[in-house]
Amino acid sequence: MSGKNKPNTKVKRILIANRGEIAVRVIRSCREMGMETTAVYSQADKDSLHVKLADRAVCIGPAPSSQSYLKMESIVMAAMHTNCEAVHPGVGFLSENAAFARLVNDSGLIFIGPDPDVIELLGDKVRARETAQSFGLPVTPGTGAVADNGAAEKTMEDAKKLGFPVIIKAAAGGGGKGMRIVRKPEDLAENITIASREALSNFADGTVFIEKYLENPRHVELQVLADGNGNVAILGERDCTVQKNHQKLIEESPSPAVTDKMRKAMAAGAVPMFKELKYRGAGTIEFLVEGESFFFMEVNARVQVEHPVSEFVAGVDIIREQILACTEGRMEINPNEIYLDGWSIECRINALTPGKISRLEIPGGPGVRFDSFIYNGCSVSPHYDSMIAKLIVYDIDRKHAVARMNRALGELVIDGIKTNIDTQKRVINHPVFNGGVFTTAWYSDFEKETENGR
After folding, report:
1. 218-451 belongs to which homologous superfamily?
2. What is the CATH number assigned to the segment(s) 13-112?
3. For residue range 191-230, what is the model confidence (pLDDT) as tens digits?
4. Which residue among 10, 44, 252, 404 is buried most deeply as judged by most CB within 10 Å?
5. Whole-model pTM?
6. CA distances from residue 373 to 215, 293, 378, 390, 451 in whole angstroms, order as listed
7. At how many degrees (to 10) do helices 442-451 and 421-429 cross?
8. Residue 302 a catalytic site member
């Protein structure tokens, strides 16, 4: 494989090619590991918490937009200028960009993530499906790659064999981009064209593929850590079923829908697959779950936003293990001695408006964690992702964790901007959520209830 990482290196300084709460999270683990950090920022982020906490900071863009954090050459130059030995991509932005990983490695630096060729393979959802199948993981029935030729006879034949409704997905994407649900054959061609254009705009690749659309699944993902030398640890699963427009809002671990039998079957396919790929670092395998059946969806070749719930139930610092795996080719944890205990829930706190935070009161007490980049007096920019914080709780079981989250949300105060805190309170207190039996379609029903005042 080209542009390989160089493990067995004890690094002293890491550049974090990201912003917000994940940059703060990485800085904190690095500090505990005795490593210095370099932050990068756009002018709009000059007063951000990750800039204040890092040992050094480099401005990589005057424009207040996410494009600043996509300047690969500027980021690598900042790392070299500040004598960093490694680059941590965080989440989003460049975290699953094989070209960036190659540039980092070819510049004599270590990319905190898998080898570029592995990122490339797993980033192509069609190839990733084929790889998962070869290791015994079931996939939803689907097609191979489809170009922008929705009217093609073969494409229509494949879709009819799958049975409508079907879902069109971007081969190179995620996050709901380039995704269209089609319920009638006569709508297929137009939606392939629309999805392909959206995929091209967002991922510079217009290739899409078609899967049978599951109407009422749960969204579950398996947390994986691997050192690239054959050691693969499974830190249980997370349930990410509460979503709005394919964007996760609440995550929990373990999943109320996953049985011990399913959990073992998921791991039985995941472990040999990650071993064969010589995967290094943190990653997740996402599944759709219907009843007792589960279907492979994709691999995220990076750490996930919702990793804290897995950290709570497994008692593992995922960022620490990720850094060790990618820089030293080892993990401090023993994959055969992972014990999952208790229940953890995470609520994403999103800004609904930009502005200056005039008052911030953070909840505390046992089993409560608040990951964020905000502080009293800071400004929330309209140019970046709306998530400004993650509130995470842990307790002995789901019932107690729900009660703890309800209490913590009641203590959380963010004034000066509008947030979704009240909405998250209503979700946590809803009898359907409390019952633990719901699907990805439920949040839409919840919103309709809210609009009708029920």
Report:
1. ATP-grasp fold, B domain (3.30.470.20)
2. 3.40.50.20
3. 998 998 888 887 778 888 898 888 889 999 999 999 999 9
4. 252
5. 0.91
6. 37, 39, 9, 10, 32
7. 110
8. yes
